[in-house]
Structures are given as structure tokens and as C-alpha cells.
Amino acid sequence: MDDFYLHPPLLVIVGPTASGKSDLALELAARAGGEILSVDSMQVYRGMDIGTAKPSPAQLQAVRHHGLDLVAPNEEFTVARFVEMADAVIADARRRSVALLAVGGTPLYYKALFEGLFAGPSAQADLRTRLGSLTNEQMHRRLCEVDPQAAQRIHVRDAKRLVRALEVYELTGKPISALQSQWNSGQPRHEALWIGFTWERSALSARINARVKAMLQAGWLDETRRLIADFGALSRSAVQAAGYSQLIEHLAGRLPLEEAVERIKIATRQLSRRQIKWFRRFPNVHWLRGDAPLQDNLQAALDLWRSDQNSELPQRP
Question: What is this structure's pTM?
């Protein structure tokens, strides 16, 4: 745009998977001449496009995106690397006086970006190998014994966070929930206006089921086949992406496709419920109805953004 404003605010759009965040972000970015920062722990992986609902080539051409395709899918990617990248993107957008929209469904990334990283002990390979040899159920039972508060928060299927919680306890003798309470609870690291989408559960579930079907029709299974052919296996963090592990099981001949698809739908619905619980804890979110027409939510978001005390949006002619 020809007209822009100094010190633009950071606009955050949160909500569960399939809630319509990206559609709103693209409209807002186009209206404001802004750019989008992906806050999605799975869109960082190259080649994992369909299953992580990355923007289309046309959308990428229309609006500049940051935080996509940062590493190969057989590499690990940490929250610390995300924060380092996101801090640099935010600083550069502010320097260029460009509006920036942070959009995605990874609550831990938001928490680290705005509140600071949990300064826990460094990972130890031997300990992680030992913990990783346990089943998720065994790890969860152990966590219930040593840190009931964390066990309530961490789902039994979330192997990555179970390992980390037990690792912290083994190395420090203290529950991770107690140490995490030391996170920065004062001023946020970045000032932002927060918008979120709410959905009635059955309606969101229907959207999730429809999106899984659409992704499969778009070639998700072939994409997974190519990833395995090119990289052998996904990294421990990459394989946490909803749906890929089920499709890998199918390709290995251990799961019929119909059953894999049903498990993907269930896993994605479970993911959405965990996201909702996380996002409800975030303060100062302006909640919009996800089932409202896009243009209504666009106008509501524009009104909120314009009225934000930090700045005003430029007007399109």
C-alpha cells in the first residue's frame, strides 16, 4: 500500500484447528497491506503442506508469510528456535512499518513468544532415550505420581510433552508445573491485540471432518508417501502433526485406510479441544463467533484494530 502507519500493532488471531483463522488473516492482511507470521509448530516443516493446511501458492503470492518451511521433516524443531525466528520477524516488520498478523494453533508457541521461555534444564539424550522406551500410558502414570498438576494438563497421547515433564523432574527433582509458574507473568514481551474464534462443538467437529476429507482428496496420502520415500521417517516432533502417523501406519500395511481416516478425525477433534482449553486461559482475547459470515468477522476485527490504542489502520480507497 502507498499509505502506511508508524509503529503498527501486532494482531494475534487464535482458535482451534479448522476454525477459520487463516481466512480472516488473509483478508485482514490484504486490507492492511500486512504480512502473516505462522504460529504453527508443524508448518515449519518443508513438504508437509496438505496435512498442515499451509497457504496455497496463490495465497503466498498475495500475502507475504513468515515461519513456513524452515526445516526438513526429519529434523527437530524447538520452541526456542521459533521464538528466535518470531522475534526477528516482529522486529523487522516494526522497522519497516508493516502490520503483522500472528496466526496459528500452537498455544505453547504463543505462550513462549509473549511470556518468555521456560528456563528448564537442557535435554539429556540418555535420559530421553530411557523415557522414550516407555509407553505413553506408563509415562502418564509416572507423571501422575510426581506432578499431578502437569498430568492433568498433558494428554496421554502427547509423548513429546510427557517426556519433557518427566525429564525435568528427573534432572531437577521438582515438578515442571512448579518451575513453569516462574515464567514471566508481568509485561508481555510484545504488545498485541488478540482476536479469537469460538465454535459450537458439533459444528466445529463437522468442519474438521470435512477438512480431513478435503485434504485426502487433495493428495495428502501421496504427500505422506513422498515424505517417507525422501526422508525415511519423520522426526519425533514432525510426526506429532495430526494425521501423518495414521497415514504412515496405513502405508506400512498396519492400518486399513478407512480406519486411518477415522483415527485422523478423532485425533484432530481431540487436538481442537486441547487448543480451546489453552486459548481460554489467555487474557484479553476478543472472541468472535466462528460461524458468523467472514465479512462480519472481518469488519469486527477491523473495528477492534482501528480502535486499538496503539495505532489506526490505513483505509483502502
Answer: 0.79
Task: Give which of 8, 42, 12 is closest to 24, Cα–Cα.
Answer: 12
Task: Provide the H-helix boundaries in 189-242.
Answer: 201-217, 220-231
Average pLDDT in the 172-194 region?
75
Please state, rounded to an integer, the average pLDDT across all residues of the chain: 88
Q: Which 3 state secondary structure label does DSSP give 8?
A: coil
Closest alpha carbon to 155 in 138, 169, 136, 174: 136
Cα 1 from Cα 316, distance rounded (Å): 9
Q: Give the mean model confidence (pLDDT) for residues 241-251.
A: 95
Give all domains of the chain, ordered by start, each with its CATH number. Answer: 10-117+199-307 (3.40.50.300), 125-180 (1.10.20.140)
Q: 55 CB contacts (<8 Å, ≥6 apart)?
A: 22, 26, 36, 63, 65, 68
* Alpha carbon distance 83, 301 (integer Å): 25
Q: Could you give the CA distance from residue 11 to residue 192 in angstroms, rounded to a whole number?
A: 6
